[in-house]
């Protein structure tokens, strides 16, 4: 079963690289924020899969929950800042 | 055809816009629903520090994150009712008081500073369990201080130190 | 026992499929608002399916309940963040992409 989790993780890492293209070349700040938010969502699943690969699921569940919280709050704060200051 | 966005009148006269109220129903409702669960999860992280990743600092940061969420969605007027500037300063000091209080209590019981084993006589437990309880108390103190300090950092860097009431009522421009 | 594990693997493959299509949409769509559609909806569903599959794989445990909590939280929080970003884009004056020839 570990081979299946490992290949899923590698495929998700490749998808993260593809999203990074939108994070660097997106014309403007807003496209970059969308790319980084997508990267954050994929990171959650990669973290939990690593927990299954190393047979320590309880530890990695807490870590991925904390990252979900902080990703949400960070995206809200950046969106509010852009709404106020304009797109620069 | 697309409606032009006009500048609406904000609460603070041009400054301190980051802590202005969001005039959006969805974000305000979701923030209000999610904040208690985030705080309960932060308490869980503090309590399980010896057993899983966590501890005092991480739990304090998550508590501060929940307060910052409340601040950027509901504005300063609503958050002030729950967590004013005076309360922030008091919480900063209370956390350090708990930390050093436990350490000095260990000195009174006849040991070194932060020697939790000697607390066994006070709580009537064996020394290994007294050490576990001593660490738990210290982590709670650390978590409270970290929460208050991080909230204060966010508030001071977004307003520049002036509370919004001072701006509208001060005449020393 | 084997049946539950097979169902979990099927859920995870479905989640992986939705991740792939969401990323392809993020790269290929012509406008910011349509890219936000792709990543907001596709990513949320994919994360929910993946976590459901992993929770089933783990058995009847306390850890599986925690994984389900994360999935429910992501279902609540990710659409809100997408809504916040699109609202910020609208306030900045970003116009959506129109086909040539329409003057609406």
- Work out the oligomeric state of the chains in this entry: heterotrimer
Low-confidence stretches of chain A: none
Alpha-carbon Rg of chain A, integer: 15 Å
What gross morphology of chain A would you assign? flat
Terminal-residue CA separation of chain A:
48 Å
Mean pLDDT of chain A: 91
Helix content of chain A: over 70%
Sheet bearing the most strands of chain B, described? none
Number of domains of chain B: 1
Offer a concise description of the structure.
Chain B is mainly alpha-helical.
Can you give a write-up of this model?
The complex is a heterotrimer of chains A (88), B (173) and C (104). With 88 residues, chain A is an all-alpha fold. Helices cover 89% and strands 0% of the residues of chain A. In chain A, helix 2 packs antiparallel against helix 3 (57-85). Chain A is flat and about 50 Å long. The mean pLDDT of chain A is 91. Chain B has helices at 25-47, 56-82, 85-108, 120-123, 127-159, 164-169. The model of chain B is unreliable at 9-13 and 169-173 (pLDDT under 50). With 173 residues, chain B is mainly α. Chain C has 104 residues and is mainly α. Chain C has one domain. Chain C has three helices and no strands. Chain C is elongated, with a radius of gyration of 18 Å. Chains in contact: A-B, A-C, B-C. The B-C interface holds B 1-2, 5, 24, 26-27, 30, 33-34, 37 and C 73, 76-77, 80, 83-84, 87, 90-91, 93, 95, 104.
Please name the defining characteristics of this protein.
heterotrimer; A: 88 residues; mainly alpha; 3 helices; flat; B: 173 residues
Q: How is the topology of this model organized?
A:
The complex is a heterotrimer of chains A (88), B (173) and C (104).
Chain A: H1 2-25, H2 29-53, H3 57-85
Helix pairs in contact in A: 1-2, 2-3
Chain B: H1 25-47, H2 56-82, H3 85-108, H4 120-123, H5 127-159, H6 164-169
Helix pairs in contact in B: 1-2, 2-5, 3-5
Chain C: H1 2-28, H2 32-57, H3 62-92
Helix pairs in contact in C: 1-2, 2-3
């Amino acid at each position: 079963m570990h081979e299946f989790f490992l290949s899923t993780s590698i495929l998700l890492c490749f998808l993260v690289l593809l999203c990074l293209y939108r994070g660097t070349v997106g014309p403007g700040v807003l496209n970059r924020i969308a790319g980084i938010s997508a990267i954050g969502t994929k990171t959650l699943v990669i973290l939990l899969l690593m927990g299954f690969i190393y047979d320590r699921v309880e530890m990695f569940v807490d870590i991925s929950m904390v990252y979900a919280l902080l990703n949400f709050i960070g995206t809200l704060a950046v969106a509010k800042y852009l709404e106020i200051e304009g797109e620069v | 055809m697309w409606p032009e966005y006009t500048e609406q009148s904000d609460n603070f006269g041009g400054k301190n816009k980051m802590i202005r109220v969001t005039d959006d129903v969805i974000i305000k409702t979701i923030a209000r629903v999610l904040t208690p669960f985030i705080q309960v999860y932060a308490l869980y992280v503090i309590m399980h520090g010896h057993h899983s990743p966590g501890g005092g600092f991480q739990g304090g940061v998550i508590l501060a994150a929940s307060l910052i969420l409340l601040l950027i969605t509901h504005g300063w007027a609503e958050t002030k009712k729950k967590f004013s500037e005076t309360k922030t300063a008091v919480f900063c000091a209370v956390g350090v008081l708990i930390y050093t209080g436990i350490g000095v209590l260990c000195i009174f019981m006849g040991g070194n500073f932060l020697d939790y084993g000697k607390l066994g006589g006070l709580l009537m437990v064996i020394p290994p369990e007294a050490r576990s309880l001593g660490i738990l108390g210290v982590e709670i103190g650390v978590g409270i201080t970290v929460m208050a300090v991080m909230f204060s950092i966010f508030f001071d860097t977004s307003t520049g130190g002036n509370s919004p009431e001072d701006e509208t009522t001060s005449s020393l421009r | 026992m084997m049946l539950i594990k097979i169902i979990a693997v099927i859920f995870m493959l479905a989640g992986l499929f939705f991740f792939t299509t969401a990323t392809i949409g993020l790269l290929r769509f012509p406008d910011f608002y349509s890219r936000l559609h792709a990543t907001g909806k596709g990513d949320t569903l994919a994360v929910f399916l993946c976590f459901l599959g992993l929770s089933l794989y783990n058995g009847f445990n306390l850890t599986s309940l925690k994984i389900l909590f994360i999935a429910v939280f992501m279902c609540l929080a990710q659409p809100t963040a997408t809504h916040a970003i699109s609202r910020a884009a609208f306030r900045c004056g970003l116009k959506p992409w129109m086909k040539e020839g329409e003057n609406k």
